[in-house]
User: Fold these one by one.
Assistant:
Number 1:
Amino acid sequence: MTDFVLIVSIVSHGKQELVTDSAVRAGSFGGTTLKGRGISSNSIVAALGIDSVKDVVYIVCQRSQESKIRNSIIQGLSSEKKHTGCIFTVGADSLLRKEELALEKGELNMNQNFTHDVINVIVNRGFADDVMDAARKAGAGGGTVINARGTAREDDERFFGMHIVPEKEMLIIVVEHSNKDKVMNAIQNLECLSEPGSGIVYTLPAESFEPLGRK
């Protein structure tokens, strides 16, 4: 088990301050917020383009603080409407702390039982909806899209065989562990990922998954 964890909260736009304020009250030093686009689990809503803006909040902390911070966030959003978002954690293998310039490492115990997995898909911009559609047909719910960019020009060298295109989309999908392989198989058969280097897909075990808002 690692010494550090990354707490990830995906919430409706404008609720990020509730997350960070709750975390700070529990001893966190703050977090980083990214703006994303939620893809509805309702296929009709998604087809009409009525997708919601999401805030993705990343908070790194020591594992000994995890429970206190996570519970504070859950409590802080407990009066919000149902399906306000979700929270989960992933183990951080190492942490570079600027104030000490020290790299601290931990060990991940892969024998731990996880109920959910996080599927991360990085594709060229414009294809995240195609990926989400395939994932939904395989049993996934909704997902969150974060706009991103490559780290080099289109005419630069290939990186791990993937031609670097500046405009990217990162799709985050949380699925039940028992359904991960089915969703992954559906994604890998997509035409937009058929060419070598057209995208990257990886998964992480999600610890302590919990929906946010009223139960």
Note: The helical segments are 16-25, 43-47, 63-76, 128-137, 180-188.
Number 2:
Amino acid sequence: MRLTKILRLATRDYGHEWQMSGCFVLALAAVLGPMLVLFGLKFGIVGGMLDQLVENPENREVRPVSSGRFTLDWFGNMARRSDVAFVVPRTRSIAATIDLSSDKASRILPAEMIPSGRGDPLLPADGPVADGMNDVILSQAAAEHLQVQAGDRIDGSIVRHYRGRKERVHLDLSVAAVAPVAAFARDGVFADARLVEALEEYRDGRAVPELGWQGDPPAEQRSYPGFRLYAKSIYDVNNLKDDLTGQGIEVRTKAADIDLVMRMDRNLSAIYWAIAVIGLFGFSLSLGASLWANVDRKRKELSVLRLVGFRTGDIVWFPVTQALYTGVLGWLLAVAIYFGAAYTINGMLVDQLASGQQVCVLLPQHYLMAFAVTVGAAVLAAALAGWRSARIEPSEGLREI
């Protein structure tokens, strides 16, 4: 009952002195509002850059600089690594080509064969897979040149010079899907790694029993000159690069671009938090001093409360309650300021942004974190005034009567 009454008295007093209460709320919003806008800009710009890095699979690719000799055991070990999302063997680039034709186009199209498989980062995760010796996925450019779409059939052929004779074999291929434009800009065919390997075997004069192609016996120990390798995330690229370099494999990555954005994120975060701590610390001292002065100004009223039976712990809740009101109302006003500023900033730059992209943006957890920090700082500031109010004796009220 005593606590309920003291909370009611603190609330009525806070509303009665609305001018002073409003000044406290405006002071908090003046500090918190710009900080929310600053963090929204930091999160929107750097967060957008990080999202682009994460979503673009090219940033997770690890490319060998020169040819090597990679065995199936090596590929098996890499595929089992937790930081590797996708890895397949690459054949020699000169052998990874095929001539394509369709009934709808008059030209024969030379295209690059890209070894692929389930989980290929360049292809949609829920889309069809180039699986087996007859299903392929065409790049957008190749599909347009051949005038075909998913479900159509095309003819693929390759030529070799074998024992003094020129030989050509044909493959009846089914277009399982057409890859997104960003997957491969040139004329290309995403195919099962076994099919790409079969084309190289045939060109080298070896037999391919799966396709009925005659030739010399296959090599007993197969090795590959290259690979397609993608890290699980952009944060794993550096580690993979270091491990491969330690194996004597020179690779090329976009680790420098990733590191630049991550350093920018860390530096801007450090600057933001330094400003936030200084601002909240200054406001907490200002609010604490104001509440202290408010308690001194109301010493007579607070001592009378002690005189009529309120305990020390009850009196402490008087400034704490008012500080909570200031924290909540100041946070609400700061959020309103942020929404107005963010709407203006995003509207000014809408022509320079991609669809759905925002320069100034905050997530729900950011608002909750700002609320918790604001209310916490207000309560800590009120603790100083609460300690002051707890030292007021009932006798002070008697002397004032």
Note: DSSP finds eleven helices and twelve strands in the chain.
